[in-house]
Specification:
There is one protein chain. The protein is an alpha/beta fold. It has 3 domains: 208 residues, Rossmann fold; 48 residues; 133 residues, Rossmann fold. The protein contains 12 helices and 8 strands. It has a 4-stranded parallel β-sheet with strand order 2-1-3-4, with helices on both faces. A 4-stranded parallel β-sheet has the order 6-5-7-8, with helices on both faces. Helix 1 packs across helix 2 and helix 9 runs parallel beside helix 10. About 19% of the residues have low confidence.
Length: 464
């Protein structure tokens, strides 16, 4: 067996594509204790997450934590599990699906139309050096068939079930499924509907024409795994790979773990793709605008209250060792409040989900809520911009458990503002990130050139 893996069934002259690997953290396959234990065993064994020496950590993890925590976590997962499965998985799949549609009906078509227009000879009376709008090759850029800024397909159009039990589907403005404008057509002139393969599907592109810019979803822990997603991109002919972790703020516990998984798989490949990696987008204008817009939309419907930003915490020693996570969280919150024009007393920031006895980033969300409930801030809106999609930490910890804690302590009004999930603004900002970080990468779509390359290779002795 070869030590290094080559592209499956590679043929000379094959199309060379740009591809996107979208990565989120992961989720158990189901909320039962066995599946939760399997997930936690993989997650908590990652040295990026727990930096304790392995010889010391193994007996703690397997002798104590994995004997106790799975049943507790299973109960928490069951509080948020839906008929469609894990909220994190559902939102991530829909996000990947819509991002692929956005990229393939805007970015690539714009490149193709531009290239074709540059090669067009002007018609009679048309100024030299300018594309002729009457030429058939660019007729699609005029009139109703234009592929520019068009509607986002609804979730049911995309073949993904809606979750009527999830708060973000109960009329929240940031989750409205009305048409947006992020370069995704609701229909094409010929087919009448968008038919985009599910990016998270385990099916390889065997005998099926892949999208011009394939987008694959992977989870750092659990499935779909990073190695399997990368191999699907390889099978689709991806030679230029853009890795986009769904973590706006960089942390060694999350973003760096994605890098480890990607490079661990690529080190087994014979023919490496050109790779670019997006570290963070904590201060990206489109991200800041999207978060601010979701808060503003919530306030328009429910009234304005004190705004609490809650980010996932990490051990303080990680910060002292040079992790920029806390600094980026603070900057994100500051930029969003500037966008919303909030006074210093109108908002605050805290860190959630700490475990163990050592000190983590402060102030702790649960402690701050107890303090607010005594009379300091009786009416709260909580937003968690560090999470790209709603999950256990936002839906069970923030929306259920911390809500109960706050109201039981004397608080009067408590609202959780959903994550960006697969909303139009989220798709749009991710598409902008992909376009920016893939500049200079143009897919090889010249069929005649590919055929000539194949013929030359076969004459030189290539097998296929």
């Amino acid at each position: 067996m070869p030590r290094y893996l080559g592209p499956p069934d590679y043929a000379h002259g094959s199309t060379s594509r740009c591809g996107v690997l979208l990565v989120n953290l992961g989720t158990p396959d189901n909320p039962n204790p066995g599946a939760v234990r399997k997930f936690l065993a993989e997650f908590l064994w990652d040295p990026r997450v727990i930096e304790t020496p392995r010889w010391l950590w193994w007996p703690i993890l397997h002798g104590v934590i994995l004997r106790i925590r799975p049943s507790r976590s299973s109960h928490a997962y069951k509080q948020i599990w839906t008929p469609a499965g894990s909220p994190l998985m559902r939102h991530s799949r829909e996000l990947a699906h819509r991002l692929q549609a956005a990229l393939n009906f805007s970015f690539e078509d714009t490149q193709r139309i531009t290239r074709e227009a540059l090669d067009v000879q002007p018609g009679p009376g048309h100024p030299p050096g300018q594309p002729d709008p009457g030429h058939p090759s660019i007729a699609s850029t005029t009139g109703p068939a234009a592929v520019t800024s068009v509607d986002v397909p609804d979730s049911d159009q995309a073949g993904l079930p809606l979750d009527p039990g999830h708060p973000s589907d109960l009329g929240h403005p940031s989750s409205d499924r009305t048409a947006g404008s992020v370069g995704v057509p609701a229909s094409t002139p010929d087919s009448g509907s968008v038919d985009v393969p599910d990016p998270s599907s385990s099916k390889q592109w065997m005998g099926v024409q892949p999208p011009v810019i394939p987008v694959e979803l992977a989870m750092t822990y659990g499935s779909p795994s990073v190695p399997n997603a990368l191999r699907r991109l390889q099978a689709a002919g991806v030679r230029r790979l853009l890795v986009l972790p769904l973590y706006p703020q960089y942390s060694g516990t999350t973003t760096a773990s994605v890098f480890d998984r990607v490079t661990s798989e690529l080190r087994t490949w014979r023919w490496l793709p050109e790779v670019r990696f997006i570290n963070d987008y904590h201060d990206d204008p489109a991200y800041i605008a999207a978060v601010a817009a979701s808060v503003s939309a919530h306030w328009q419907r429910h009234g304005r209250r004190h705004l609490l930003f809650s980010f996932h915490s990490t051990p303080k020693r990680y910060l002292l060792a040079g992790d920029p996570y806390q600094c980026q969280c603070l900057k994100t919150a500051r930029l969003v409040t500037e966008k919303l024009r909030l006074a210093p007393g109108d908002w605050s920031i805290s860190f959630q989900s700490r475990v163990g006895r050592e000190e983590w980033l402060r102030p702790y969300t649960d402690e701050l809520l107890r303090e607010y409930a005594t009379g300091m801030q009786l009416h709260l809106d909580v937003v968690c911009p560090g999470f790209s999609a709603d999950n256990l930490e936002t839906l069970e910890e923030i929306e259920i458990r911390n809500r109960e804690l706050f109201l039981a302590g004397g608080g009067r009004t408590y609202h959780y503002i959903p994550a960006l999930n697969a909303t139009a603004s989220h798709v749009d900002l991710l598409a902008q990130l992909v376009r920016r970080h893939s500049q200079g990468w143009i897919n090889s779509t010249d069929a005649s050139g590919n055929a000539e390359s194949r013929e030359r290779a076969l004459r030189a002795g290539a097998a296929r």
